Amino acid sequence: MTVRETLDFSARCQGTGSRAGEMIVGPTRALFMDEISNGLDSFTTFQIVTCLQQFTHITDSTILVSLLQPAPETFDLFDDIILMAEGKIAYHGPRSYVLSSLSIAVSSAHLGKA
């Protein structure tokens, strides 16, 4: 989806029509953000995600952010992760379980090919 399509989808989820400026207003409190780090250095991206994390925890809302290869410090700020590979979900769950879950999946795949 394009950024505009993502914003329109987010607004529709909250019942605000296609007015992207009203995305945070509404009963569902969900914000969808696509590739917010384009053109930014890792420190600036970290600062933005830190602010988003604080906002999310204070307002008890949900923010879905797509990032391509975030720095480890930025990755550590997320509560839940959706990892995608070739257009399919490879992992969805708590950030703290990503490595163990993927290690098990890789081990199982390797044993299946032996």
Automatic annotation (TrEMBL):
It comes from Acer negundo (Box elder). InterPro entries: P-loop_NTPase (IPR027417). The keyword Transport applies. Keywords: Transport. PANTHER family: ATP-BINDING CASSETTE TRANSPORTER. SUPFAM superfamilies: P-loop containing nucleoside triphosphate hydrolases (SSF52540). The keyword Transport applies. This is ABC transporter family G domain-containing protein.
